[in-house]
Write a structure and sequence with these properties.
Layout lengths: L1 H20 L2 E9 L2 E8 L7 H16 L5 E4 L3
Parallel strand pairs: 2-3
Antiparallel strand pairs: 1-2
């Protein structure tokens, strides 16, 4: 599990600069039942393109390194 979380954070670290350029950020919350839970901040929290970013950016990138991942869920804490 620790190795999986490390890989998730590495993927998020690669994506983060692009989000930062748009005034946003993302944080890893947890990995549970093969789902990655994240939290968007800043401009990303209210962005109309959030679903595209999650599906085509974050999920696609995580799926490459963690094939068993079933999805990425944005949580509002």
């Amino acid at each position: 599990m620790e190795e999986t979380i490390k890989k998730i954070n590495e993927v998020l670290d690669q994506i983060r600069p692009y989000l930062n350029m748009e005034g946003g950020d993302v944080e890893f919350v947890k990995y549970e039942d093969d789902y990655v839970y994240i939290k968007f901040y800043g401009a990303c929290a209210n962005c109309s393109m959030m679903d595209v970013t999650i599906e085509d950016g974050i999920y696609a990138s995580i799926k490459e390194v963690i094939p068993e991942c079933k999805g990425v869920i944005n949580v509002e804490i």
